Amino acid sequence: MNETKKTIDKKKLVFYIIGIIILIFMVICFMIAFKNYNSNSSSKTTNSNTNSENSNNISRSTITKGGNYNITGDNSCIVINTTDSVELSLNNATITCENGPAINVESAGKLSITLTGENKIVATTTEELDAAIYSKDDLILSGTGSLSLTSNYDGIVSKDDLVINGGTYTINSEDDGIKGRDSVQITDGTFNITTGGDGIKSTNDEDKEKGYITISGGTYIINSINDGIQAETNLTIKKGTFTIKTTGNADNDSAKGLKAVTLVTIEAGTYNINTTDDGIHSDGNITINKGEITINSKDDSIHADGMVEINDGTFNITAAEGIEGTYVKINGGKINISATDDGINAGNKSNAYSVKVEINGGNITIKMGQGDTDGIDSNGDIYINGGTIDITAQSPFDYDGTAKYTGGTIIVNGTTTNQITNQIMGGPGGNMNEGGQSSSNRSQNRGMR
Q1: DSSP states along 353-401
Q2: Which is more confidently placed, 199 or 439?
Q3: Which of 279, 318, 424, 436 could form an S-S bond across to 273 if both were Cys, CB 3.0 to 4.6 Å?
Q4: How close are the terminal C-alpha atoms of the chain, in Å?
C-alpha cells in the first residue's frame, strides 16, 4: 500500500511540474506578443494605419504619432500631423494623390524620408499646398533608392530647412523642382530635374542668415525655364557635376544658370551651363576658387554687380559678354573667352568697389567678334600685374581711367607688347603707357549691360 501511495505522489509531482512548465511557456509567449505589439505601433505601413479617411473619393492616411513608418506598395495621400519627429521608409512604394501633396507634413518635429528600391510619387496639388512632397517643418531625404516624382506645381518643398543626403531623383514639375524656404543643403545624390520654373531654390529674403543653398557633392542635370539653381542669399558649391540648361525669355524672366542675391562661391566641380540669360550671376559678389567650367550664354557668362574674383580653374566661355563686374579680379586659372560684345568688362553697378579690371595671374585667351567689341573694357581702370593675356580683337582694350602694366605678358593680334593700347574699332586712342589716361569716351556712360 505504501508503494501505491508513493507511485501516486510521483504522478502528482510530474503533473505539477508539467503545469508549471506550461504556465511559464504561456507567460513567455504573452511577453513576446506584447513586445511585438509595441514594436508594430511604431513601425507600420499606411495600409495598416487605422487613422484613415475617405472624403470626396480621396483616400488619405494620417500619421498622428512619431516613429518609424514603412511605406510599401500602392498608397494614397499621406498626411502627417504630430509634434514628434517622423521617419518614413519608402521601399518600392507608389504614392498617388489627386487633390493635394502625396506627402503633406502639416506639423512634425521633422520628417525624414529614406529611399530604398524604386519609388514613385504622382500628385495633383493645389496652389496653397503646392508640392508633391510638402512640409511646413524641416525635411530630410536620404537613402540608396530612387524616387520618380511628377507634380503639377512644385516637386519637393520645405518651409524650413531642406536637407538631401543621398538618393536618385527624377523630378518633373510644372513649377519649381526642389525648394527650401530657409535653406537647401545637399551633400550627395543624383538629380534629373525638368521644370517650368526654377530647378533648385531657397526663398527666405527676410533673414540674411537664411535663404542659402549649400551643395557639397552629387550629379545634377537640370532643364528649367527659369533659373537652374537660385539662392536668395548665398550659393556655395563645394564640388559636384552640373549640367544646366535654361530656356526662358530673359527679357521677361530670370533664366540664369547659377544665381544668388548676395554671394556665389564655387570651390570646385565640373559645370556645363547653357543659358538664355547669365550663366553665373550675383547681385553681390562671385568667387571662383577652382573648377572646370564651360558656359554658353546668350547674355553674360559670369556677371556680378559687385566683384568677380577668379583664383583658379579652367573656363571655356562663349557669350555676349564673358566676365562682367564692377571690379573684376583674376589671380589665376586658364580662361578662354569668345564674345560678341566685351570679353572682360568692368562697369559701375555697385558703390562697394572702384570700377576696374585687375589681372595678377592666369592664362587668358580672348577672341572677339567683329564690330563694336572690346577684349577688355573698363569704365574705370585696368591693372595688369601678371599672367598671360592673349587678345584677338579690333579693339583689345578700352578704358576711361588709368591703365597700368607692371608685369606679365600681353599679346595683341599675335604680337607681344608691353603697353595697354586704347583703341576704338582698330584705331589708336590716347597715350597708353604706364599711368596713361584714355581719351576714349565710348564706354563712359555705358555701364554694365
Answers
A1: S--EEEE-S-EEEEEE-SSS-EEEEESSEEEE-SSEEEEESSS-EEESS
A2: 199
A3: 279
A4: 121
